[in-house]
Amino acid sequence: MIRKWIIPVLAIALMASAAPAAAAQSAAWHPQSGEAGDNMHHKGKMTRKDFEAYRLEKLKEIATYFGISTEGKTAEQLKKEVEAAKAANKDKWEAFKAQHQAKRLERLRKIADDHGIKTEGKTADQLRRELFELHGGKEKRKHRTDKEDADNKQQTNKKNEV
What we know:
By secondary structure, the protein is mainly α. The protein has helices at residues 2-29, 48-66, 75-88, 90-114, 124-134, 137-140, 144-161.
């Protein structure tokens, strides 16, 4: 009877002793936001530190639009004040968003003109899609590994020529 319970008890004890070590290892692989500034952000090639700086600049831009002083304030303080200003001045916030959408549309029109795309009467989304398709669309873009394979093939061909 005792023999039947020895193996499961030892297995449970082993798993319980390994759990804190596994949790510590998991924390090492996934640091908190303040611990590592060089982790890549999910968008593009920005690091976490670059993204935080970018976000702070955007908050400062919104704060100056609403007339909020930005000197000596942390990002959290600025965010709270901007949120309060957005709630208090909904019309002004809508005007700010419309102004930035117009800037984006103008930028897309300039890029589309440079690529020979007619821009008259098209929305920002239509222009973005046309530019995306002009540059190959999703299907025709080389995946990173495909690009690496092509580079390796070129290097192999160069070695074979010599």
